[in-house]
Amino acid sequence: MRVSIDSRTTQPGDYFIPVKGPNFDGRDYIGDALSKGARLLDIDLTTFSKSYRKKLKCAVIGITGSAGKTTVKDMLHSILSQKFNVVSTKENQNNEIGVPLTLLSADDTTDVLIVEMAMRNKGDMAHLTRLVRPTHIVMTGIGLTHASEFKTAKDIAKAKGEIFQKPLAWEKEQRNAYINYSSRYPDFLSKLAEKKGYKIFPFEGQDLPDQNIQLCYMIGRHFGLENEDIQKGLEHYVPSSHRLIHVPHPSLTIIDDTYNSNPDGVVYALQTLKRYEGRKIVVLADMLELGEFSEKEHAALVEPLVDAGVSAVMTFGEESKAIQSEDISVMHFDTKEDLHKMLSMELKQDDVVLVKGSRGMKMEETVEYIRQHVI
Fold it and tell me: Best label site of 39, 100, 175, 186, fewest CB within 10 Å?
């Protein structure tokens, strides 16, 4: 079913649900939605989606982890869509509002529903899981995300592990859990999953991108696809916006990975960058919400930067000052204006430039500057 919670984007025939948030009340916009041809569905979004989930007969893949959730979601959508009718999370709709909307976007013609599930605080994952009730769980890995809310990576693993829930009376089929054994605490997570009745399928890989590829092959085979079809799906998958996207430019290869940033996410981007030929320039802004781990985790990026063959690093933000190295050139900038001036002088034809930073750093502005002003 087509559901909208935003009267600005409502289309004729949509069901409009007036959601109330901390800074808005959807009921104030009912008139606008109805004037655009929407039908009012005056219910609680969470309660309705939870009831709606029971009616779905499709396989439901729930994806969580500290990094790579969206990439895996996009890859699996591309692979499985070759054989099945697949519905998946749109862009970043992976929270307490987006997940119910994703559930409601599936119907009786859906074969596979892929739901990206994120958390910021303790209890978030348990809440989302009670809505999604996944038949297949993907744990991409455990790293330091939102570390300011958790004391250790083990605490994050425990919170992510709340995705494993005992089956309800109506959940009769075998449930599978795909757990990254190249990441932290795989045995701990496997024990949690087994106690809740999940069958464990471990996967590994040489680096983070390879781990995602191995995972996709495993799931693709479980859904009956041949290796050739899986490879074709991987070759044609389209990344979500600001997630390792290639930005058109006449003389540079620009990689926009500015949606968000955390230690595992930066390493993933750098391991992807390593596969490119040419001189590599990296623009890194602060990784936010790392709390007491911030200085250590920023400093630890030097090794993967060197390993990726990066020629120069330009950093922006207070936290990123901890990135210092004698092995590669590191330049720090306190303002984007100064950063952009240096990019204009430094970037040359055929360079590969990766731009990454936490959402709050708004590094898409730098991507746009390079696109428009660097020749």
Answer: 39
Of the residues 193, 210, 236, the one at which a domain ends: 236
Q: Count the domains in the chain.
A: 3
Residues 122 and 180 in one domain: yes
* Two tokens, residue 215: 């995972």
Alpha-helix runs per DSSP H in the chain: 30-35, 45-55, 69-80, 98-104, 124-132, 153-160, 186-195, 208-222, 227-236, 263-273, 294-299, 302-307, 336-346, 364-373
Residues paired with 88 in a beta bridge: 114
Together in a domain, 74 and 178: yes
State pTM to two decimals.
0.92
Q: Mark whether 176 and 304 lie in a shared domain.
A: no
Contact present, 64 and 125 (Cβ < 8 Å)? yes
Phi, psi dihedrals of residue 65, rounded to the nearest 5°: 140, 170
Pairing label, strands 3-4, 175-180: unpaired
Question: Domain range spanning residue 255?
Answer: 245-373
Q: Are residues 167 and 304 in the same domain?
A: no
3-state secondary structure of 229: helix
What's the pLDDT at 147?
59
Domain identity same for 171 and 49: yes
| Full strand arrangement of the beta sheet holding 329-333 | 245-247, 253-257, 352-356, 280-285, 312-316, 329-333
Residues 264 and 369 in one domain: yes
Asked if 280 and 308 touch (Cβ cutoff 8 Å), the reply is: yes
d(CA 60, CA 135): 5
Interval 190-228: pLDDT, tens: 999 999 999 999 999 999 999 999 999 999 999 999 999
Q: What's the CATH code of the domain at 36? A: 3.40.1390.10
